[in-house]
Specification:
Strand content: 25-35%
Order of helices and strands: EEEEEEEHEEEEEHEE
Radius of gyration: 20 Å
CATH superfamily of the largest domain: Galactose-binding domain-like
Number of domains: 2
Structural class: mainly beta
CATH topology of the largest domain: Jelly Rolls
Helix content: under 10%
CATH class of the largest domain: Mainly Beta
């Protein structure tokens, strides 16, 4: 399969693997030059000229050593949220002469702990969702995924070795509502871990719209949604798709860290439009 280097629509979905929502790399064949944990960092990769470690050039990604024996390297990732995967970005940002030429991705859906032995196992229970595909260096490599099953873990295989900056896993969160909301317990229907999604915003000059539904309180002002100063008529807005239709009992608008730039007032509207397009909303 060939990578798509344009920006596909699935990138508007939640990143199921992000460390921000609990995703983590649990095992790897090798991370000699750069640790596997970098693979799921929420922020974009960076490059720092002249920065070295005792093992070589510091790189903001996962990087294995040069392979001198047959085989390939891999990294197993536990998704922060179980979900149906719609697309992947195997980003090789800043890896120019040390990126893998190909990759493949396998998936697993389990409630068990994935041990190092299971992570390394060839074949079942791992299921291929992306066959071996070419990668381009220092690039976003997007792949659409057609499999509709939900998954909890992925294994990124790289051929034969090298570095990957980030693995983004875009998809729809699958929520077990019997576990999350037993006996009608009140829950946050907008939370990303419950399937909430910010589908649009009028402006995101200072802060990303998706920050408003992330777990926990904001770490700082940059960890929220902030628009540029409005100099004309009108107001700013965002549209949230709830994780499930529900009866809203309480709304919390948290302006933590915003002191001289919080909104003076707010209003909230609701609608039932499960198939509504953005234009219709």
């Amino acid at each position: 399969m060939a990578a798509d280097h344009s920006i596909p629509t699935f990138t508007a979905l939640a990143d199921l693997a992000s460390a921000r929502v609990g995703g983590r790399a649990v095992a790897t064949s090798d991370d000699f030059f750069a640790p596997k944990s970098n693979l799921v960092k929420p922020e974009p990769a960076v490059f720092i000229p002249g920065k070295y470690t005792t093992r070589g050039k510091w790189m903001d990604g996962w990087e294995s050593r040069r392979k001198r024996t047959p085989g390939h390297d891999w990294c197993a990732v536990k998704l922060g949220m179980r979900g149906r995967i719609r697309g992947l970005n195997v980003s090789t940002a800043f890896f120019t002469g040390n990126f893998p030429t190909q990759c493949s991705v396998e998936a697993l859906d389990t409630t068990r702990v994935v041990t190092a032995a299971m992570a390394a196992r060839e074949g079942a229970p791992w299921v291929t969702i992306l066959p071996k595909s070419a990668l381009r260096g220092d690039s976003d490599n997007f792949f659409a995924i057609e499999d509709d099953r939900p998954w909890t873990h992925l294994r990124l295989n790289i051929f034969p070795d090298g570095g990957v900056a980030r693995l983004r896993v875009y998809g729809d969160v699958v929520v077990d509502w019997n576990r999350v909301a037993p006996n009608g317990r009140v829950v946050d229907l907008a939370a990303i871990e419950h399937g909430g999604l910010v589908v649009a915003a009028s402006d995101m000059h200072y802060g990303a719209k998706d920050n408003v539904i992330m777990p926990g309180r904001a770490a700082n002002m940059g960890d929220g949604w902030e628009t540029k100063r409005r100099r004309g008529p009108g107001y700013d807005w965002l549209i949230l798709r709830l994780g499930a239709a529900g009866r809203v009992r309480k709304i919390e608008i948290d302006t933590n860290h915003f002191k001289g730039n919080y909104p003076d007032s707010a209003s909230v509207e609701g609608c039932v439009a499960p198939l509504g397009s953005l234009a219709e909303l």
